[in-house]
Amino acid sequence: MSSKTFLAASLAVFCGTVALRSDEGMWLYNDPPRERVCAKYGFELTDAWLEHLQKSSVRFNSGGSGSFVSEDGLVLSNHHVGADALQKVSSAQKNYLRDGFYARSQAEEIPCVDLELNVLQSIVDVTARVNAAVTEGMSPDDAVKARRRVMAVIEKESLDATGLRSDVVTLYQGGAYHLYRFKKYTDVRLVFAPEQQVAFFGGDPDNFEYPRYDLDICLFRAYENGKPVKAPHFLKWSQKGAAEGELTFVSGHPGRTERLLTVAELEYLRDRQYPIALAYLKRREVLLRSWSERSAENARRAKDELFGIQNSRKARDGGHAGLYDPALMESKRQQEKALRVKFAANPAFSAAAGAYDRIREAQMKIARDERLHRLLELGHAFQSELFDIAHILVRAADEYPKADGERLREFAEAGRASMELGLFSDKPIHDDLEILNLSDSLTYLSEQLGAENPIVQKVLAGKSPRIRAAELIQGSRLRSVDERRRLYQGGAAAVAASNDPLILVAKSVDAEAREVRQRIEAQAEIKKQAHAAIAAARFALEGKGQYPDATFTLRLSYGVVKGYTSGGKAVPATTSLGGIFERSAEMEGRPPFDLPERWLKKRRSINAAVPFNFVSTHDIIGGNSGSPVVNRDGEFVGIIFDGNIESLVLGFAYEETQARALSVHSAGILEALRSVYAAKPLVDELVTGRRK
Amino acid sequence: MSSKTFLAASLAVFCGTVALRSDEGMWLYNDPPRERVCAKYGFELTDAWLEHLQKSSVRFNSGGSGSFVSEDGLVLSNHHVGADALQKVSSAQKNYLRDGFYARSQAEEIPCVDLELNVLQSIVDVTARVNAAVTEGMSPDDAVKARRRVMAVIEKESLDATGLRSDVVTLYQGGAYHLYRFKKYTDVRLVFAPEQQVAFFGGDPDNFEYPRYDLDICLFRAYENGKPVKAPHFLKWSQKGAAEGELTFVSGHPGRTERLLTVAELEYLRDRQYPIALAYLKRREVLLRSWSERSAENARRAKDELFGIQNSRKARDGGHAGLYDPALMESKRQQEKALRVKFAANPAFSAAAGAYDRIREAQMKIARDERLHRLLELGHAFQSELFDIAHILVRAADEYPKADGERLREFAEAGRASMELGLFSDKPIHDDLEILNLSDSLTYLSEQLGAENPIVQKVLAGKSPRIRAAELIQGSRLRSVDERRRLYQGGAAAVAASNDPLILVAKSVDAEAREVRQRIEAQAEIKKQAHAAIAAARFALEGKGQYPDATFTLRLSYGVVKGYTSGGKAVPATTSLGGIFERSAEMEGRPPFDLPERWLKKRRSINAAVPFNFVSTHDIIGGNSGSPVVNRDGEFVGIIFDGNIESLVLGFAYEETQARALSVHSAGILEALRSVYAAKPLVDELVTGRRK
Question: What CATH number does the domain located at B2-116+186-258+549-688 have?
Fold first, then answer.
């Protein structure tokens, strides 16, 4: 104890006198937070330590993170990251997603369909070369094209030279360009998955909440040439796992943050965009939920949509609450003020100095159109799958005759096949749900624009929303895939000749929808350019020592295992395996709090005291799912699987009073594999780092 | 068949040539719709027929309707009308409300606590005498007092002369005054109630919906001098019951309608008040619901509030959808236009002629304050029981020192005891629910007024809503009843000295809350006077032949048993007893679709084909619950227990395309009593009209 204190103290001296800061940051591996970590925790991030963690980290191209956990190519990620792969290897007879899977021998491991894993090998700064492609006097459009071109050349050269997947990544909104080279694994096989019940125990009610009791893991094995790969780097498994207050690191692929939003944009989100979006989501949630309760069949029909709505609502409610933190907003204000002073002081940054006002003005213009844009272009006024089909048909007839580059984005030639796949899908469309949704959204349209508005009057045609919705849905022939095909192939002439009521409505609002979209996109482009100017100036001023917004590339976060206070109650850092039984009993075992048969049977064999899930202060976001949590020794102590509801503000700013990353504990995973799944070979492989 | 057709045809000739109208109207018994019924259905409402139905009809002073169904004083109403009485005779050992009750002998009948039944004996028009009390030049205030005085005199005289309960009823917003004399029964005993499960089968999900399968009945017996009364009038039971398309009548006590609202008021409700209220209800519903799902204890704590919110939300959603019916709005517009032309043509109606504009102006002023009024005065910004207590304490200190007449309504001396009962109640207050509610409502406050608003800044004190809510709730000492008593008894001085955080917040917003309330009430008074002017003019012009807005006095409605179309689907008029088992199975027997043990056991004995519930076109509203439905022969064919969701517009206007009254069928009641409850004596009494 005293020697540890001494060590920390001496290292702190060694590290210099940098002020203690928060655990903020999703750091680049080629610009790691050495000084910060050293100053705050007295720990040195050596090159060897970093390389080992980098090369043990795995990116799932399906969206998510993972890590090698044995030299025989065993890769650990979340059950929800593996869900897509599990679904694809399941059949009518074998539902591995729901029921879980365990390959007791190598022969039983199941090859996944189209799952690609990437392991980052190296990073090269290619900023100068990319920027050199842009010559003075180029129009912005040409500059974009020139940059794209040189990036493609760099990627091609690198691939040819190394055989590695090579991506040029845009960082700091264009402030820097780095070439990332990945080793690619495409033969990936399924080794183990628990039952979805226990992987996502607590379902939607406990989603984004804590305490939690989820075994959200899934194990794969990477193969090459038909054999398990010998992984040059993998994480040693810590049987003890993470302890409270312990410094740990998260290595993973955060997807997207917007930490550079200006105060004007954040206020806009807080005061307008989020309230409108949330009221709309809550309205739809109540609608679908009360309808679902009226019959099991209704519930089945609305299930996916309802879950999606609840998930978004929860995520946004959390983010919105975060934006109401005055400390957060004040720090953004101070930061912005300081930057503006610096920009104003240097003529080289004149574009950046004016950018804040340009953003504010653009935001005000967007504000004027936001409501109409949501209604007409995002379809909030027309919640109906048949209407969506009608609108696509109307637009396809207009768009496809144009040159590829002139079309609306979603009609680009590259996306045509998948667009047609959706358009001609014969997935069932339920008239009752269609009428319910359309009826409510037409009412919403009237409420939002006022009953006397010409668009409303045109759409409702003198009828009440519920009568009109029934008439439109029942009168449409678009539930026939043949009819869709006929209109699609017939193009503009066929669409013009159609008297399908939904086609007529879609046509009647399309001009207004296009106009409002165009206005919004023009302002978004102004904002984008202003942001690029700020980012470039900021990068020039601050350069290294900052971290860029998340880009689904490998990042390093540091932090500690730590509880927090929510709603005035202390929330402890760690839960234990026994807690899942208590939680299930508390909820009377009703779904989604029911436990798999196997867990119920093995209850007595499980050591209830073993840690199960824990929270930590790491700076994470969506895409970090499956990221390994490692200790100072680089050992695996846990796996990220969620954030608490307070962490949903992390898209805008780091916060460490309440925002927490959620992980499954390494000791809990071992205990479950051992006591519930009797997966001794797997346990041995994890503990020893190799297959027997 | 042909003779019936002939009879109808000949009667139609006899009835004259009045155009066929809808089944609209909640008609006065002393001004019944003789011509309309005769013209449309060829049926003559004779004095004897009317008197029999009137004197068989019963008013429940707890709010609801009923009827005598045997000469031995048996009174039938709804289970939900009887719920209060059932609750009051229940104990920890015997939960009659939940489990039902059946007195197999007279001795077993249980005397109800404070239940009063009224039977209307006579109606006398006293308009002239009431109006004579108001002399020229009286101020409006004095006029109100003079009217109240003469009404009290008339009531007293009548009571002394007849011994009957005598109430002067204000009709047509003051257009007419009628003296209603009631025979009163105060010894009322409980005879039969089914289980709540089957009385309110389908619970909230099926509330206001159809098809339904509810045995929403409760039987009482009226006693006098310790013996069952010999009822001079009672309804003969039709074993066949109501058939589709059959003309029937409803005799009951509709509580309140607002059919005279002007177009400006209706548009305001549709475009502003309802959308704001509904968004707020849905927000609260989602909040409490997702919290409830996190634990059984949460669910228990939020249950009553959540049910109340869902019930209001459903009712308002239904009413709101009704207001979107362009036909309804257009007919209101036409009606208003026609009246305004008539008023303008006659100088005697000048007050009425200008009234529409006065209402519109007042409505516009209310619109400006509506949001703030809801937030501060209706408490939408401060959803917390502890805050409510704080606000009452702050106001009580200000109000009680004033003269009785000068105080805010809720602090009138007459209500003081019940106010104190609430204030000093030791019912549990849950901190977690308090923080959840307050945190969300403070966020709502910020959203509605904007984060920069001075009220918001004052209330939040530089904290985020969730931090502030926790701090306020945890810092308050008002959960102690003693502390409340201390502040209440200490009056202004004690409240001024208190540094309880909730008292401080309540004080800080009280001035603004009072001001906005005063502004709203001033405009409401202007509207009330304008409505009285319109009603008086209208009554002078149209006089008899119209029906007044509902006033919880006996009214007659007519209509037919008839299905409808909803969401494009045909909804048949009648369900059958077998349907309840199918519905329960469809919902996998989960509450509120579970069936009582008794029903499950007796399933095979029940004739599944017997009609259970039915819908009809009668013009009803809350208060009609328990009203008998009778056929041309004055026989009991059903009992009203609900309206469908489309009927929720009936507060504003009659509608008969989709709006329907819901009843329990007389045949279904008999079959259930016979086959499920083995209540032969009761069945015999209903069938023969007397006890054996």
Answer: 2.40.10.120
